[in-house]
C-alpha cells in the first residue's frame, strides 16, 4: 500500500480551502484559469487570462494570488502566470493511486469471489484511512462499488488497524493522544486500553 505523507495531505487541504474557504473563490472560476494556463507552455499575462476566462482582471488577480500562495500557480518576474509545480506533485500522487487500484483489483476480485465478503483497498493519510476501492456483492454477480475518497479514523476500521499494528506501541499511544479516539458507531473503540487489546488480537491472527 502507498503511504500518503503529510505534505500531500496539507496540499489537498489548502486546495479545498482555496475553493470553499472564506474568500469568494469558487472551483469553477479557479478551474477556468487553470484550464487556460494549461493551453500555453509560456507564462500568460493577467490581461490575457482575464480576457479568455471572461473574468474581471481584479477577480482573476485575486484568484491567481491565492493559488500562487499554495503553489498551484507560479508568477513570473514579468507578472505573467503559469501552472505551478504543486499540480505536478499532486498529479503524481493521483497517478500512483490509480496504478495501485489497477494492480490490486484482480486480487481483490478473486478474494471477494472466494469469501463472498466485501474487500476494501485503502491507503493511509495521516491519522485516517482513505478508501481507494471496494468490491461488493450483488445478488447475481460480483460488482465494483467506487467509494474513492471516503475517510475514517484508523482505529475504527479493519484496514486502519493494520497500519496501527505496524506503528508499534509508542506510536499507537501517540495516535490515541493526538486524535482522542473519536467513535463513529456505538461499538467503536474509544479508549487506549481497548485499542491496545484489539491490536494485540490483530497481531495474533
Any overview of this molecule?
This protein is an alpha+beta fold and 205 residues long. 55% of the residues lie in helices and 16% in strands. It has helices spanning 6-20, 27-38, 46-53, 57-69, 85-115, 158-167, 169-179, 192-204; strands spanning 3-4, 73-75, 81-83, 119-125, 128-137, 142-145, 151-153. The strands form 2 sheets. Strands 1, 4, 5, 6 and 7 form a 5-stranded mixed sheet that branches. Strands 2-3 form a two-stranded antiparallel ribbon. Helix 2 crosses helix 3 and helix 6 (158-167) crosses helix 8 (192-204). 14% of the residues are buried. Residues 1-8, 19-24 and 139-146 have low confidence and may be disordered.
Provide a quick synopsis of the model.
This protein has 8 helices and 7 strands, in the order E-H-H-H-H-E-E-H-E-E-E-E-H-H-H.
Quaternary state of this entry equals single chain
β content, as a range?
15-25%
- Describe the biggest sheet? 5 strands, mixed
* Poorly predicted parts: 1-8, 19-24, 139-146
How much helicity do the residues have?
Answer: 55-70%
What pattern of helices and strands is seen along the backbone? Answer: EHHHHEEHEEEEHHH
Q: What shape does the CA trace take?
A: elongated
Class inferred from helices and paired strands: alpha+beta
Count of β-strands: 7
Span between termini = 20 Å
Count the helices. How many?
8
Nearest-integer average pLDDT:
82
Rg, Å, rounded = 22 Å
Topology:
Elements: E1 3-4, H1 6-20, H2 27-38, H3 46-53, H4 57-69, E2 73-75, E3 81-83, H5 85-115, E4 119-125, E5 128-137, E6 142-145, E7 151-153, H6 158-167, H7 169-179, H8 192-204
Helix pairs in contact: 2-3, 3-4, 6-8
Amino acid at each position: 500500500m502507498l503511504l500518503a505523507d503529510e505534505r500531500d495531505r496539507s496540499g489537498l487541504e489548502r486546495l479545498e480551502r482555496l475553493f470553499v474557504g472564506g474568500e469568494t473563490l469558487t472551483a469553477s472560476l479557479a478551474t477556468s484559469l487553470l484550464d487556460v494556463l494549461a493551453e500555453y507552455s509560456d507564462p500568460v499575462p493577467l490581461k490575457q487570462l482575464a480576457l479568455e476566462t471572461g473574468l474581471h482582471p481584479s477577480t482573476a488577480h485575486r484568484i491567481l494570488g491565492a493559488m500562487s500562495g499554495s503553489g498551484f500557480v507560479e508568477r513570473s518576474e514579468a507578472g505573467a502566470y503559469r501552472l505551478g509545480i504543486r499540480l505536478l506533485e499532486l498529479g503524481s500522487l493521483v497517478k500512483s493511486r490509480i496504478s495501485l487500484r489497477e494492480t490490486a483489483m484482480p486480487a481483490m476480485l478473486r478474494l471477494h469471489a472466494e469469501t463472498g465478503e466485501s474487500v476494501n483497498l485503502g491507503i493511509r493519510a495521516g491519522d485516517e484511512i482513505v478508501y481507494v476501492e471496494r468490491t461488493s456483492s450483488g445478488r447475481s454477480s460480483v460488482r465494483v462499488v467506487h467509494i474513492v475518497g471516503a475517510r475514517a479514523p484508523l482505529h475504527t476500521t479493519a484496514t486502519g488497524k493494520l497500519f496501527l499494528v505496524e506503528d508499534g506501541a509508542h506510536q499507537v499511544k501517540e495516535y490515541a493522544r493526538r486524535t482522542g479516539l473519536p467513535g463513529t458507531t456505538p461499538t467503536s473503540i474509544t479508549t487506549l486500553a481497548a485499542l491496545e487489546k484489539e491490536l494485540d488480537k490483530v497481531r495474533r491472527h
